[in-house]
Amino acid sequence: MAPDTVSLRYFLVLAQELNFTRAAARIGIAQPALSARMRRLERELGTALLIRNTRSVVLTAAGAALAESAPPALAALDRAWDTARSAAAGELGTLRIGYSVSTGAETVPALVDRLIRSSPGLEVGAVPMATPEISAAVADGRIDAGITRGEQPGRGVRRFLLRSSRIGVQLAQNHPLAEHPEIEIADAAAYPLRLPDRAANPVIHDQLTELFRDIRPHPRFHTPAVSFDMSQHDLRDGATLAPAGEAAATTQPAGLTWRPLRGAPRLTIHLVLPHEQSPLSHRIRAVAKTVAHELHWLRD
């Protein structure tokens, strides 16, 4: 049986000092306790490590060999302990995050960046996914975590509110409504409203259409043929508005701006984790809470 590492570390101090009094003082224990430790270590190894007399301590051949070979072995053991602790803290391994495209402009990059910087041993991969697929992918283990707009349905997962933001509209900078710091819902509804296909995110689609339910006459909704069209021609020409969350205010293409809708409810972004907790899920949850606090994602 291998000796305990505490006695081995004490032996290395004594091998350097070659004096029980100085070694005991350096370690911070009584000299008799150090002597007892060394006798027990020699019994465990079945050989003498030290030659003692009243004036000096000399290493035997076995003691000299142990003094030379033990430090790298202990260093390797320390690394093994550190690796085990890091794994237990969710700081090692591969973390797969699926996210809805609409969260990819700000939310996901901020979270992934913090995960990478705070856990160098963690390999983080993020991939865009169709929003309705994310909860199921987390539940069956295809991904370790998900970021979605809205509280998407699905079993076998836990959901945590990550971000809350005002609902507003994207519109051309020269649009007449852009002169107002806030826009009335009824005023926005007087223009055609561009919404993404409901299949892309039923929860958010229904929330946005519900916003205009009581407006008369009913607003005109249309869905572009290409989701997330970067050209945004229909907005640039001033004929169309696009309901969007507050994050759009910081990621506007040239020629467009964003204004909040007065009295509108808030859009939410959620972190989706497996129902069964693991070190990885604990880690991403802790980092997500820190980022949300620092960036004031839930300030209201």
TrEMBL record:
Protein name: LysR family transcriptional regulator
Record GO terms (molecular function): DNA binding; DNA-binding transcription factor activity
Keywords: DNA-binding, Transcription, Transcription regulation
Domain HTH lysR-type: 3-60
Coiled-coil region(s): none
Extent of the signal sequence: none
Annotated Gene3D superfamilies: Periplasmic binding protein-like II, Winged helix-like DNA-binding domain superfamily/Winged helix DNA-binding domain
GO terms for cellular component: protein-DNA complex
Transmembrane segments: none
Matches recorded under InterPro entries: LysR_HTH_N, LysR_subst-bd, WH-like_DNA-bd_sf, WH_DNA-bd_sf
Stated family: Belongs to the LysR transcriptional regulatory family.
Species for this entry: Yinghuangia soli
